[in-house]
Specification:
- By secondary structure, the chain is an alpha+beta fold.
- Helices cover 48% and strands 24% of the residues.
């Protein structure tokens, strides 16, 4: 309740209302650049990654499972996860990244 009288005092004829609008606009702009825009960029990059999936690529799922793509559909991917030929089916959105042989060599060195 103490907030309403404070708001009423700042919106006098000297332009306090314009100042408040400007402050809200600055906060909205900051929110856009700090939260919304980076999230949209990450979503776009993830969609591009998912559109490039093809058999033979080594990938990592969001759960950390490493595998090689055997087959790709619009909604799922089949991953071979070991030398014995075990194949697991995951939704396309579960693929977090495509790994390269350079990534694997760096993991072996550690």
């Amino acid at each position: 309740m103490a907030l309403l009288p404070l708001l009423a005092q700042t919106t006098d004829a000297t332009g306090g209302g314009i100042t408040q609008i400007a402050i809200f606009a600055v906060f909205g702009l900051a929110l856009w650049f700090l939260l919304i825009r980076p999230q949209q960029k990450r979503q776009k990059e993830q969609q591009e990654l998912l559109s490039k999936l093809e058999p033979g690529q080594d990938v990592v799922t969001v759960g950390g499972l490493h595998g090689t793509i055997v087959e790709v559909s619009d909604s799922w991917v089949d991953l071979q996860v070991d030398q014995d030929g075990t194949v697991l089916r995951y939704t396309r959105q579960a693929v977090a990244s495509i790994t390269t042989p350079d990534d694997d060599a760096a993991d072996d060195d550690e």
